[in-house]
Amino acid sequence: MATKIFTLSLMFLLALATSTAASKYQFQKLKETNMVFYMQDWETGANATAFPVAGIPHKPWGILAFGTIFATDDKLTVGIERNSSEVGRAHGIYVNSALDGSDLHLLMSFVFTNKAYNGSTLEIQGADRFYLKYREVSVVSGTGIFRLARGYATLETVFIDIPNSNAIIRWNVTVFHY
């Protein structure tokens, strides 16, 4: 009997502690943040930022090849130009996940380095059907200013060089956070 009371008391205290921690955010109004920046995705040249790291054995690895996995450290900039001011970096991976080569699956952390969001991150996940003019992926989380963020991003390819696998992607991001 004493063990049962102790167990129930412990469960009650754990539930109370959990609900108290969660209630910190429960009554706060969500803020909406909108931002636009450009991801400089370069797989060739002296300043390449994305590299194939794995693929299907005995098949060529490339952006249009199913199963190819890329590691990326792409620059995020204010403008379309490669030398435009940096707002952060896109760290992560993308995988060509369509048998016909038409779809990338993105898993990225946007690590902000600009004054407004320095040290904060956004976590991105989703299907990038890069042959479409506009695509949408999810913002699934964040840190710092964007703690517990949720939202979406619309992508538009503004420059593409398929033979060299280089691209500039315009990101229009909307996040809701505390």
UniProtKB/TrEMBL annotation:
One of its GO terms (biological process) is phenylpropanoid biosynthetic process. InterPro entries: Allene_oxi_cyc_Dirigent, Dirigent. Gene3D superfamilies: Allene oxide cyclase-like (2.40.480.10). Residues 1-22 form the signal peptide. It comes from the Eukaryota. Keywords: Apoplast, Secreted, Signal. It is found in: Secreted, Extracellular space, Apoplast. GO terms for cellular component: apoplast. Its main location: secreted. Homodimer. Belongs to the plant dirigent protein family. Dirigent proteins impart stereoselectivity on the phenoxy radical-coupling reaction, yielding optically active lignans from two molecules of coniferyl alcohol in the biosynthesis of lignans, flavonolignans, and alkaloids and thus plays a central role in plant secondary metabolism. PANTHER family: NUCLEOPORIN-RELATED. This is Dirigent protein.
